[in-house]
Amino acid sequence: TCAASVCSAMARHAGPRLPLIVKNLIPMLNSVFDSQRITTTAFFAELLNSNVVNDLILLETMMDNMMGRQKDTCTLVRMLALRGLGNIASGSPEKVRKHGAKLLASMVNGMDDKDDPHNLVALEAMSSLSKLLDHVEERDIQSMLLHIAIRIRPFFDSEQPDLRQSSIVLFGNLTKFSEGNCEVFFEQILNGLVTLLLHLQDPKPEVVKACKFALRMCGPNMGCEGLCDMFLNHLREDRSLHYGEFMNNVCKHLMQSYPEMLNRLISTNLFYFKSNWVDIRAAAPMFIGFLVLHVDEDQCQQVDLDQLISGE
Length: 312
What we know:
The protein has 312 residues and is mostly helical. The chain is 69% helix and 0% strand. It has 20 helices and no strands. The longest helix has 17 residues, at 75-91. It is elongated. Pfam families: HEAT_MROH2B_C.
């Protein structure tokens, strides 16, 4: 983009002049004109991608100004402000740890943005949060882990592929912090498991790639070595997947390790019988078939056949 090119050039060649430029631009963040606030926020967001703001002791000033834009009336300004805060992960990663709690709070607020009809702010919040997670203190994310996991779950089935992709990648990244909340987060993994497995048949390759990543990340937290090995070996990015054979084996491990989950897994799959995506609509009954195939006779008695036959 134009802002990125300008900032890159200025970071390289105009270092000593940047503090004065930034000082003169800060009042534009409160301009009555949306266009001026958008342009200034975009410029600052890209500048935060460079370590030069840290060298010139501008980081805190610019970060505070980006946080101050979170209540801006313009959706694009709010989105760009979050992008700037996320860019600190690449421009000044060592500072993310220091300001982790504030940065995470900004991302959570972005995901909860109530005036975001096209989810632009939420999308930016999820993408930026994934960038920040490698650098934050574990204690800062622990308190927000559950809220974030629950908040992003509806995006897994969004009509917008970039929202599906970003939310699923973020979910995979969150699993790195689940140890302290193992039981609580395990519940979130179980809530998302059917969706992630079905979206391996997503029409968009980038969403399939995100699901593979998230399932590989979830595997070690599931307490089932066979399932973990399957996810790690069969869901590598460079490996093509024989979906039917894979799901047959996944269901075998699921029913060996979590037979009590049968009805819950079936109920979630039934929801996808009405999916807008034909391959996912086809995968759901196959998933149920493999579950029933591998469950023992006692557990099979629990299946509500009327519900299955009616498909609701």
